[in-house]
Amino acid sequence: MKTVLSLFLLFTSSLLVAQSDCSILDFLYDELDGQATQIMLNEMVSGGTATDRPIEFDSTRRAEYISALFAVHQLESSPERDTVIDQLRVQPFPLVSTKKINIYADPSLPWMINLRAGNPSGNAALDSMLALYEVEVTRYNDFLILNSHRLELTSTSHLNTPALAEAFKIAISEHNFVEPVSAFGDGNNIEMIPVLPDGLRVRYSVGSGDCPSGCIFRRNYDFDVEPDCTEFDIQQTGGTATRQAAIIPLKVYPVPFTDEIHLPETFVNYNYQLFDAVGRNVKSSGEEQGGPIVGLTNLVSGWYILRIQDQAGKSYVARLIK
After folding, report:
1. What is the rounded distance in angstroms from the CA atom of residue 210 to the CA atom of residue 122?
2. In the chain, ranges of CATH 2.60.40 domains
3. Do the Cβ atoms of 189 and 129 come closer than 8 Å?
4. Rounded Cα–Cα distance for residues 50 and 280 (Å)
5. Could you say which of 1, 182, 236, 289 has the lowest number of CB atoms within 10 Å?
6. Where do the CATH 3.30.70 domains begin and end in the chain?
7. Given this model, what pLDDT does residue 223 score?
8. What gap in Å lies between CA 123 and CA 179, rounded to an integer?
């Protein structure tokens, strides 16, 4: 049995041993697989590496994350485990969907017409991609956005959708933009934190207080796990509470923007970061500045997130489209 790294616990702590049965029922495996792949995708999106990674998730890390999550599920006599799994049903925050992407394109294109009718697209490269990754059209929106209609595509498997979106861009040259379906705001989350020498800390995070703009309060439930298939040593941290800075919604103009973004006149000095739909930092101020944000002509069409910090240290966020 491996020894779990000892922790300094802010609240109560205890060494808990999970049940020794390593078999996972199908319904639970599917749930844990969805959680594991969402955690992996969140890590890649936050690190700005998703589009550089393979479309299919790394099987070794995927198995490690599933085992760690299963270890927490197997805990006996744990109020903390019961709180985050049975009562609150905490899930990883879906920064980007692991199954869905959107394609925005001219509705008069032949392949758009075919897909809307439920037929093969007629574009060999596109149909090959759809078949390879078991993707089908699950929604068609005929509202106009940048002279486009929207196709929602859904895979039967969990995939690295930012990389998948990039592959679809190559397969079809006639599109306005392609992006994974994403969520905005804040809320509950599950994270994996490496613990030396080779363990994992499974952090179930419960957010509260104006979470669409960023959770003001957050309570963490940490479980350190080192799976050995037949036994799990788990060091449990019972609810460490932390306070996070509030993120305030911000209205900017024009929407859509082209070359400039204008902020309210109250922003005399500020720092900014501009992220694309898959979490890449595409432009930032580097130091305090005033006036509009300029030099955005070369950015591709799509959704963006603008984060602002004013001279008083307050944080603001706005969702934009180009």
Report:
1. 47
2. 248-321
3. no
4. 9
5. 1
6. 96-182
7. 87
8. 19
**What's the CATH fold of domain 96-182?**
Alpha-Beta Plaits (3.30.70)
The 3-state secondary structure of the chain, one letter per residue: CCCCCCCCCCCCEEEEECCCCCCCCHHHHHHHHHHHHHHHHHHHHHHCCHHHCCCCCCHHHHHHHHHHHHHHHCCCCCHHHHHHHHHCCCCCCCCEEEEEEEEEECCCCHHHHHHHCCCCCCCHHHHHHHHHCCEEEEEEEEEEECCEEEEEEEECCCCCHHHHHHHHHHHCCCCCEEEEEECCCCCCEEEEEEECCCEEEEEEEEEECCHHHCCCEEEEEEEEEEECCCCEEEEEEEEEEEECCCEEECCCECCCCCCCEECCCCCCCEEEEEEECCCCEEEECCCCECCCECCCCCCCCCEEEEEEEECCCCEEEEEEEC
Written as tens digits, the pLDDT of the chain (322 aa) is 222 222 222 222 333 444 445 577 788 899 999 999 999 999 999 888 999 999 999 999 999 899 889 888 888 778 888 889 999 999 999 999 999 999 999 999 999 999 999 999 999 999 999 999 999 999 999 877 777 899 999 999 999 999 999 999 998 988 888 999 998 888 999 999 887 666 788 999 998 887 777 788 888 898 888 655 444 556 665 555 555 555 677 888 888 898 999 998 888 889 898 888 766 788 888 777 888 999 999 998 888 888 888 887 787 888 888 8
Tokens at 160, concatenated: 């690295």
Topology of domain 248-321, per CATH?
Immunoglobulin-like (2.60.40)
